Amino acid sequence: MSDNLHVVCSHCGGVNRIPAGRLEQNPKCGKCKHPLFDGHPADVDDAMLQRQIQRSDLPVLVDFWAPWCGPCKMMAPAFAQAAAQLEPHVRLLKLNTEQHQQLAGQLGIRSIPTMILFRNGQELDRMSGALDAGGIVSWTRSRVG
C-alpha cells in the first residue's frame, strides 16, 4: 500500500500526490502553488464538490447551507473552527444550496444545515442541524476513525 495520498486543491481542482507524512508540512498545489490547506472551509460549486469527493483520498466533510438560514449562519463560525482542527486530515467544504439546488436535491438535502461526510466517493454519514465546533469535530472523528 502506498503512503501517498491524492489531495484535490480547493483553488484550482488540481490533484496532488502528497506523501502522508507531509500532510502537516503545509504542502502547496503543484499546479497553482496555493497552499493545499489553510484551516478554513472552501466554498465550492457542483463541479468542485464532485471532484473533491471522487478524487481525494481524504475524507470530505461538506456543510450544505443557505444564506437565508439562521441556524446555518450560527453554525458557520463553528464549521470554520472545526476546519482549523480537522485539516489536513479531513477536507472541509461549504456548498450553498440556494445556488446549487439541483445537486442538493440529488443528494437528498431536506433540511439545512446538513453535513455529509464522504470517503472514497461514498457517503459515510450525515447530520442535520447546527452543531458547535466541538460537536462537529467529535462527530467527524468518530466516523473517520
TrEMBL record:
UniProt record, GO biological process: cell redox homeostasis
Top-level taxonomic group: Bacteria
Stretches assigned to the Thioredoxin domain: 23-145
Family annotation (InterPro entries): Thio2_N, Thioredoxin, Thioredoxin-like_sf, Thioredoxin_CS, Thioredoxin_domain
Keyword Ribosomal protein included in the entry's annotation: no
NCBIfam families listed in its UniProt record: PRK10996.1, thioredoxin
UniProt similarity note: Belongs to the thioredoxin family.
PANTHER family named among the record's database cross-references: GEO12009P1
Protein name: Thioredoxin
Organism: Thiolapillus brandeum
